[in-house]
Specification:
single chain, 244 residues, mainly beta, Jelly Rolls, 9-stranded mixed sheet, 7-stranded antiparallel sheet, 55% strand, disordered N terminus
Length: 244
């Protein structure tokens, strides 16, 4: 008689804000969901193809000097403030709140990222995705997503095929961003075998009935239906739909 492995049980694993890695460099206050820089935790090296999820606060007039990357899909989402970007592909741009930047490093790219204000703090999420193919030609995209498309719901902003006006990434992943106010609900059906990672950048909300606060995250496995509900003053959230 054939023996079949037991089915995967639905599971949501919370990652509390205070359990993340923390680096404070004076001008930079960074929280690391996964191992990054001097923070190393073998139990948190990434989730599916999501390798880095950093929430950064950058002091006025400060930033990351020119440095290099290769073979990584790098997505930046600005929460507040102004980000100034320059890279070796010849791009020079300003990214405002609600805008998403995607840099496919491929064979190699150098860039710098600075707070464009001399008076205001910059807050952003930086997320790295492992690419489907290595050694591709470097590529850059940037796009604003109006508040009307992100309020009371989540908006698809990154996908492998540029669906619904999203940025195109070199991996089978999708990124949704949005702001859910108190009582707002939004749902997503995951295809069989898919995973998801949710991060609450600000505020509070519920994921399938489980409460999450500022900086909390949740790794989702073997679930097919996700329901997000705004709580209190609501929350700003990013959600990755990821392959198994």
């Amino acid at each position: 008689m054939a023996v079949h492995p037991p089915p995967h049980r639905p599971m949501i694993t919370l990652r509390k804000s205070e359990d993340r890695g923390h680096a404070h460099h004076g001008w930079l206050d960074a929280r690391h969901t996964f191992s990054f820089g001097s923070y190393h935790d073998p139990a948190h090296m990434g989730f599916s193809e999501l390798r880095v999820l950093n929430q950064d606060r950058i002091a006025a007039g400060q930033g990351f000097g020119t440095h290099g990357h290769r073979d990584m899909e790098i997505v930046t989402y600005v929460l507040s403030g102004t980000l100034e970007h320059e890279d070796s592909m010849g791009n020079g741009s300003t990214i405002q709140p609600g805008e998403v930047q995607l840099m496919s490093a491929g064979t190699g790219v150098t860039h710098s990222e600075f707070n464009g204000s001399e008076t205001e703090e910059l807050r952003l999420l930086q997320m790295w995705i492992l690419p489907r193919e290595r050694g591709t030609t470097p590529r850059y995209e940037q796009k604003p997503f109006p508040a009307s498309e992100r309020t009371g719901k989540l908006r698809l902003v990154v996908s492998p095929d540029g669906a619904d006006g999203s940025l195109t990434i070199g991996q089978d992943v999708r990124l949704f961003v949005g702001q859910l106010r108190d009582g707002d609900t939004w749902s997503l059906t995951l295809e069989q075998g898919r995973k998801a990672y949710l991060h609450v950048a600000e505020g509070r909300l519920g994921l399938n009935g489980q409460p999450l606060g500022p900086g909390d995250g949740a790794a989702v496995e073997a679930e097919t239906e996700l329901e997000l509900t705004g709580a209190g003053e609501g929350g700003e959230v990013v959600l990755w739909d990821l392959p198994a």
